[in-house]
Amino acid sequence: MVKKKSANASASIARNKRATFEYRIEDKIEAGLQLMGWEVKSIRMGKVNLSDCYVYIKEGEAFMHGCTIQPLNTASTHVICDPIRTKKLLLKRSEIDKLAGLIERQGYTLIPLSMYWRKGAWVKVEIGLGKGKKDHDKREDTKEREWKIEKARVMKKDKENT
């Protein structure tokens, strides 16, 4: 039996690791991304940073702000490359309306979690709908993560001794 690989794992471009530490993610949505040609070339080279990125909704459209895509040295001279250009997200109207309602009424935040290739040619962004964590929540997560590491270390040691 051949084991299939995850579609997102092999096609991953960038991840926002800080997002899961700062926010409690309750729902995930996949969105398309409107890009320029030089941005696609830079993304293929892996020059993307999602760490200080967020999503906002304005006039019925979703936009991603703060995503840094560094232009290549070989970029065309007639194209003005703005590394932190605000990018439009491609979502259905019903999804945008639902997200806008949750953001306005219940205080949620939209955070880009990862960027990946879909079907080889399309760049997709996974957006997390979450709420900010308090300091004590972050400390609990850190303790839990450290306990898992310690537990794995002890289990490995016990396994070697037997």
Task: List the main descriptive attributes of the protein structure presented here.
alpha+beta; two-stranded antiparallel ribbon; 36% helix; 162 residues; 5 helices; globular; 9 strands; disordered N terminus; single chain; seven-stranded antiparallel sheet
Can you walk through the features of this model?
The chain has 162 residues and is an alpha+beta fold. 36% of the residues lie in helices and 33% in strands. The protein contains five helices and nine strands, in the order αβαβαβββββαββα. It has helices spanning 7-10, 17-22, 37-44, 93-106, 135-161; strands spanning 12-15, 23-33, 48-49, 54-58, 61-65, 68-69, 87-90, 109-118, 122-132. Strands 1-8-9-2-7-5-4 form a seven-stranded antiparallel beta sheet. The chain is globular. Residues 1-9 have low confidence and may be disordered.
The run of helices and strands is HEHEHEEEEEHEEH
In helices, the fraction of residues equals 25-40%
- E-strand count: 9
Helix/strand structural class: alpha+beta
Q: What's a quick, concise take on this entry?
A:
The protein has 162 residues and is of the alpha+beta class. It has helices at residues 7-10, 17-22, 37-44, 93-106, 135-161; strands at residues 12-15, 23-33, 48-49, 54-58, 61-65, 68-69, 87-90, 109-118, 122-132. Helix content is 36%, strand content 33%.
